Predict the 3D structure of the following.
Amino acid sequence: MEPDYNNNYQNSFQSGFKPNEFDDLHLDDEIYEIKSDRINPEDFYQHGRKKRYSEVSLRNMPVVLIIILANLLAGIMCIIAGNDHFETGGLNYQYIHNNKEYIRLLTYMFLHANLPHFINNMIALYIFGSRLEPRVGSLRTAIIYFGSGIASGLVSVYVSHLINPDVIRFAAGASGAIFGVMCATLFTNFSSKTDSNKTTVIVSIALIVVYALISNGANVDILGHLGGGIAGGILIFILYHDYLNDAFESTVSTIIAIMLTVIISFVGVSSAGIGTKANPMQDSRIDVVKSQQIFKDYTVTYGECLDNKCTDPEWTIFSSSDKKKVVEFNGNVVYNNMNSSLKIQFVYNDSDDYWALSYMALNGTAMDSNGAAMLLNYLCSDYFN
């Protein structure tokens, strides 16, 4: 507020001052100087949080840009390789749970089915990420993105398997992580006084709905979207507090966020197996066979014995001509001072709910029950002591 010099001038005459005496007034006493103690703190803080620039600036969103570039690089690599990268790096219960390829919970975020899939995801990431990262900081954004992506993958893999365990399915794409970023952005819109106006919130919700509709289809991983969105909401609720601002919004934290994002992106893209052949898929029924005891009086299992005593162990499952399920083991073993190939087959017995050893061959020659027992005793000899 500025002083009203005209009113002061009039009041001076009304108080008995003469015009020639006006120059003697100490007008400098009436001048408002801008001092730090007269700045309204609310001009710079809302609910204890610093105001941030709302305009999009590339320098304020390094994490989002690195993620977009990493996805672009992975897409170019997939086009050049021309292979089915879903099998090498996509989400799959058998590969993650049975083969223990947990890296797929990261690699799947950098793989996309086609160009429209990639473009839709990257546009959504840019729109919401460019609002979230300048507001909450780069380190928070990196945690929310990758945390939501991993949570989305876990929900997609295990809940889908519980619903339909007989279906072998693959999933890939950044949409689970992006839904986490969306929900985090919406949370900050509600919690920030400057941005919680109805227009901003309505536009955010509308964009989320539009993205959900665009990405909807027969092959869309709805469970993954839900898991990522819920994870993003939980993470921003935990991380978005005033007392954490110094830790998450400093220059050092930004540098750490950039380094982590570069490292995680490099590992994700390089470990996706683009241009390579996928490992053999291991069925959960193989785990059942491997956990069975070989001898009644000893706890040693087929998995412990065969995987440790044989080189190049490989387990597979297939259906026989008479529609029976067969688990087969192939490996190499040193027996009678000779390097020999070993094949063992197990057939499932419905009545006993047990996988029975039905066939055993050494160098392609079938063994009788006595020969098979002798070989198994030899392989398990270390466990009998």
In short: The beta strands are 45-46, 49-50, 311-319, 325-335, 338-349, 354-362, 365-366.
